[in-house]
């Protein structure tokens, strides 16, 4: 069994989960009328994904806990080392208290909080204005691939910068470059640990932060001084999330497609056969509406390697048995937010994140599966996230070479690729494992530097050679 089902909780539907929330009814569902702020939707699930990015130990998980009351550091080795290793997830509702001055009127609450909340201090009614999902990324340099997988599903980002350390730190630069590659423009900068420094130091660092982001994707982004540990200025952060992060435009009409970022076997050791539950896929829906009882397909599915290095793929067919957003049961799920999908898939195929990087959706409506790709790529001028040695600025990024092995992040998949041809800004690669993706999809490129994978650039898929697919 997994150490923890990382907030894609698949609780018993007979429990009290969902009490005080707006009802959902598939019989009366009108998909064409749904929006990311439809009350029946945001009452139960988050519709905006916000990443927390920045250097290790700058307070990313702490700020998520301050807003959502959820601890994203869940696994034993994460707790021992006090760092995030896997992607952490936590949902939070943001309420606005009626007839209350800003920013005190913005109050965060857990995802399961009922809709008819009343402010304890004033007795005034609280209106639900947003339901957001935090993607808590690891800040450690050797976990950059995990951070890139998280960046693939973000609508906005909170950039954490510790007030008691010089700015920028190595992964501050690298994470910022990663979200720039993903064309993420909605960024809020949080100057954390403000309680540990004098006012003059905080003001000096504020100017350093402005210089650091000047000319980049975060130029002009608001900089909010906070103490995540003491929950100082958290109401201001909530206000900025509501006012500065636009509601994403979503496609509800097309057949549903979910990108898998975690997967689990939720059965306890020694569970009786008749009580076994199918595998759980956790991820975010990119488009469409996923409904309970719906037939689904997971691609690439089962991959078998042939003697010549090519792959055969057998997509996995199954059915949606349950849908959950944290502990909130759903009848249907929409784009945005992190969703747990309970299926009939053999739990052995889903355990230990075995489905990560796969795509779940309606049969016959998913993209092709590729092992060979041709990409149009762009390289960074210098390596980011590497402490400069003898004033070299971290090192220049050299051109891609034939037969070089690089790492690519395509959606939520991290895979190796061998370069078989390079011509100008174009390269042809053979992937270590096949990927289900669209032509035109963006990808991040990393190279092995000092035994760690380092972000070196990005690219776009121009074409590919589809893999042979064996249907059931």
Task: Give a description of the structure.
It is a single chain. The chain has 8 helices and 23 strands. It is an alpha+beta fold. The strands form 4 sheets. It has a 7-stranded mixed beta sheet, sandwiched between helices. Strands 8-9-15-12-11-16 form a 6-stranded antiparallel β-barrel. The chain has a 6-stranded antiparallel beta barrel with strand order 17-20-19-18-21-22. The longest helix has 15 residues. The chain is globular, with a radius of gyration of 22 Å. It starts with 38 loop residues before the first helix and ends with a strand. The N terminus is likely disordered.
Average pLDDT taken over every residue: 83
Number of strands: 23
Tertiary shape: globular
The proportion of residues forming helix, as a percent range, comes to 10-25%
Portion in strands: 35-45%
Count of discrete alpha- or pi-helical segments spanning 4 or more residues: 8
Computed over alpha carbons, the radius of gyration is: 22 Å
Cα end-to-end separation: 28 Å
Residue stretches low in confidence (pLDDT < 50, at least 5 long) are 1-16, 72-86, 139-145, 388-393
- Output the strand order for the largest sheet: 3-2-4-1-5-6-7
Any key phrases for this structure?
single chain; 472 residues; alpha+beta; 7-stranded mixed β-sheet; 6-stranded antiparallel beta barrel; 15% helix; disordered N terminus
């Amino acid at each position: 069994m997994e150490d923890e089902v990382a907030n894609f909780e698949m609780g018993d539907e007979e429990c009290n989960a969902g009490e005080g929330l707006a009802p959902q009814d598939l019989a009366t569902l009108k998909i064409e009328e749904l929006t990311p702020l439809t009350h029946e939707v945001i009452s139960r699930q988050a519709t905006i994904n916000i990443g927390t990015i920045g250097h290790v130990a700058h307070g990313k998980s702490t700020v998520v806990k301050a807003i959502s009351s959820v601890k994203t550091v869940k696994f034993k080795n994460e707790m021992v080392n006090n760092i995030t290793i896997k992607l952490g997830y936590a949902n939070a509702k943001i309420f606005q208290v009626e007839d209350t001055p800003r920013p005190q009127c913005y109050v965060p609450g857990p995802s399961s909080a009922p809709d008819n909340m009343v402010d304890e201090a004033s007795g005034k009614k609280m209106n639900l204005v947003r339901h957001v999902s935090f993607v808590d990324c690891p800040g450690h340099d050797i976990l950059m691939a995990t951070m890139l997988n998280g960046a693939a599903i973000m609508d906005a980002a909170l950039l954490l910068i510790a007030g008691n350390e010089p700015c920028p730190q190595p992964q501050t630069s690298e994470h910022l470059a990663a979200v720039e590659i993903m064309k993420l423009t909605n960024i809020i900068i949080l100057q954390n640990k403000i309680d540990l420094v004098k006012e003059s130091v905080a003001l000096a660092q504020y100017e350093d932060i402005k210089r650091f982001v000047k000319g980049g994707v975060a130029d002009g982004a608001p900089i909010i001084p906070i103490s995540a540990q003491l929950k100082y200025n958290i109401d201001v952060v909530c206000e900025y999330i509501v006012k500065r992060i636009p509601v994403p435009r979503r496609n509800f009409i097309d057949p549903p497609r979910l990108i898998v970022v975690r997967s689990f076997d939720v059965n306890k050791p020694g569970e009786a056969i008749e009580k076994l539950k199918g595998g759980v896929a956790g991820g975010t829906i990119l488009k469409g509406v996923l409904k309970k009882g719906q037939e689904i397909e997971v691609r690439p599915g089962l991959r078998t390697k042939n003697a010549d290095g090519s792959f055969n793929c057998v997509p996995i067919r199954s059915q949606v048995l349950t849908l959950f957003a944290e502990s909130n049961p759903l009848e249907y799920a929409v784009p945005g937010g992190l969703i747990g999908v309970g299926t009939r898939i053999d739990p052995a195929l889903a355990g230990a994140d075995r489905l990560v990087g796969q795509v779940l959706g309606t049969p016959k409506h998913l993209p092709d599966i590729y092992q060979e790709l041709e990409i149009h790529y762009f390289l960074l001028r210098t390596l980011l996230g590497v402490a400069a040695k003898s004033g070299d600025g971290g090192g220049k990024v050299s051109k891609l070479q034939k037969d070089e092995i690089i790492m690519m992040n395509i959606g939520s998949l991290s895979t190796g690729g061998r370069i078989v041809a390079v011509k100008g800004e174009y390269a042809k690669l053979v992937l270590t494992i096949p990927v289900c993706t669209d032509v035109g999809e963006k990808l991040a490129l990393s190279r092995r530097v000092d035994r760690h994978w380092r972000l070196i650039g990005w690219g776009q898929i121009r074409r590919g050679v589809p893999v042979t697919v064996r249907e059931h």
